[in-house]
Design brief:
6 strands; 113 residues; single chain
Length: 113
């Protein structure tokens, strides 16, 4: 297995001090350095190199079917757990409104991610 490369970056952020006043401080964070984005074909080829009995076209077909089924299940409000990978689920961010009758999920500020 490979190794994720992490770069240190410094940012100036505002924090509250003991008197509840804001002050600027330097903080160091980690940032992942991405190598490249692998395509479906790249992943199918990689799977084949691990001794898969399935040909590249079969692997691509299974991944493509998984993708379309996952989109369908997520759109229906389900969570999809892929063991060893993670759980995927739809999320929603929105700005609060004073009166509930003014809320509409169709407003641009209320979009599912």
């Amino acid at each position: 297995m490979g190794e994720i490369q992490i770069q240190k970056i410094q940012r100036t952020v505002q924090v509250k001090d003991g008197d509840n006043k804001r002050k600027k401080v330097q903080k160091t964070y980690g940032k992942i350095i991405y190598r490249k984005t692998l395509s479906l074909d790249d992943m199918a080829e990689h799977i084949m190199k691990h001794g898969s009995v399935y040909t590249e076209d079969v692997v691509i077909g299974v991944i493509t079917k998984l993708k379309s089924c996952m989109q369908e299940m997520l759109a229906d409000g389900h969570k999809v757990k892929l063991d060893g990978i993670g759980t995927l689920y739809p999320t929603l961010t929105s700005e609060g409104v004073e009166d509930a009758k003014d809320y509409s999920p169709c407003q641009p500020e209320h979009q599912a991610l």
